[in-house]
Inverse folding.
C-alpha cells in the first residue's frame, strides 16, 4: 500500500476488477405499509398536501392504479435496522489517496410502482469504471448499477450511479 505522499499508478483494486458485472448479495426491505407511503409523501411534498394517490384509498381506487401507490422516489430502505458501513475514509482518520469519495450523480429509470404490502429486493453490481487525472490527481469514476424488484419479480427501478474516488 502506498504511503500518504506516494503517487499511485491506479485506484482500481483487484476487488473492483473481480466484482465487475457480478451481482452482490440481495438487500430485502421490510414490507411497505400504507403508512410508510403516506409519511414519505407528506415529507417530500411539505408544506403542500401530497397528491391523493399517495394517501386517499377511496380516491386512489378511481385511478388507473386502482389503489394507493408510492411516489417514484419512495425508498423502502429508508429505515434500516443497522446503519450500513460505507466505504471510504472513516471519521477521525486522515483519508489515504483513493479513500475520498464524491457522489458523481445518478440516473433512475422507473418501471412498476411500489404498493402497500410490497417487499422490495435490491441487487447491485459494478458496471464499469475509468480513471483520469484531474486537479486532485488520479481519480476513479466507478459506475454502479442497481435494480429493485418486488416480491412478484417485477422490475421496479434501475439506477446507474457514479462515485468518484480520489
Amino acid at each position: 500500500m502506498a504511503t500518504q505522499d506516494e503517487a499511485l499508478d491506479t485506484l482500481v483494486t483487484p476487488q473492483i476488477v473481480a466484482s465487475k458485472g457480478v451481482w452482490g448479495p440481495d438487500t430485502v426491505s421490510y414490507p411497505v405499509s400504507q403508512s410508510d407511503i403516506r409519511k414519505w409523501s407528506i415529507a417530500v411534498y411539505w408544506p403542500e398536501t401530497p397528491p391523493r394517490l399517495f394517501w386517499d384509498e377511496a380516491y386512489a381506487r378511481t385511478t388507473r392504479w386502482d389503489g394507493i401507490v408510492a411516489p417514484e422516489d419512495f425508498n423502502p430502505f429508508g429505515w434500516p435496522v443497522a446503519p450500513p458501513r460505507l466505504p471510504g475514509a472513516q471519521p477521525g482518520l486522515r483519508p489515504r489517496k483513493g479513500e475520498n469519495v464524491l457522489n458523481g450523480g445518478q440516473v433512475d429509470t422507473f418501471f412498476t410502482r411500489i404498493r402497500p404490502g410490497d417487499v422490495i429486493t435490491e441487487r447491485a453490481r459494478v458496471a464499469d469504471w475509468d480513471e483520469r487525472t484531474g486537479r486532485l490527481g488520479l481519480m476513479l469514476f466507478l459506475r454502479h448499477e442497481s435494480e429493485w424488484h418486488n416480491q412478484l419479480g417485477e422490475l421496479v427501478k434501475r439506477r446507474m450511479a457514479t462515485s468518484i474516488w480520489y
